[in-house]
Structure of ATP synthase subunit O, mitochondrial:
Amino acid sequence: RAEAPPATTRGAMLFSRLSQAARPVPGALRRLSTAALPMEPPIKMYGISGRYANALYAAAAKKSELLQVESDLKLFKETTSSSPTLKNFVIDPSISRSAKVAGVMSLCADSGACDSTKNALGALAEGGRMGDVFKVIDMYSELLTAAKGEISAVITSAKPLDKAQEDQIMAALKKMGGGSVSVQKEVDPSLIAGLTITFGDKFIDMSVASQMKRLNALLMD
């Protein structure tokens, strides 16, 4: 009976298979110039994850890889999130650091990630910080959004929005922000109906769940 491969090998094999499936079609991803983007992080991120995000931005800026890192991290997040087993491999603290380094490097190699991405993910794996990787990715995305002069918005709806609804909301957000808007869409059935929008430092709550809470509070008075 053949022995199962060690955890390091299994992790690398799993990353390789998932990254092959999620790899974008060659030439389909447009790389934009980073020349107009600031060399230093435009805003400051805090905490341990923030320090990693700030350092990654600075390193990528020096290599003119800011936008490629953004694409690499998006692919990494999509690839790992598509498989509960793979996501657990990334965040489970009981899995050895060496196994995670091997898995991360396999994914980076198969997806054609740039040096800045490889170094950052490798540092997280070696430092035992892969549990923070998704927070680091989100913070880096915030840095890029600010560097591009965009305003970020998170639209959370009880069910997926149709195109007409998305277009209407986007038009309103652009009018409010006076410029380009970077939107992240999420679905949360607990809202019952309606949606919430986090837009810059504003929070707009148009959910039925929130209305019910306010109604209950009035009835309790």
Summary: The chain has two domains: 7-146, 150-220. Residues 17-32 have pLDDT under 50 and may be disordered. The CA atoms of residues 100 and 125 lie 6 Å apart. Residues 7-146 form a domain with the Peroxidase; domain 1 fold (CATH 1.10.520.20).
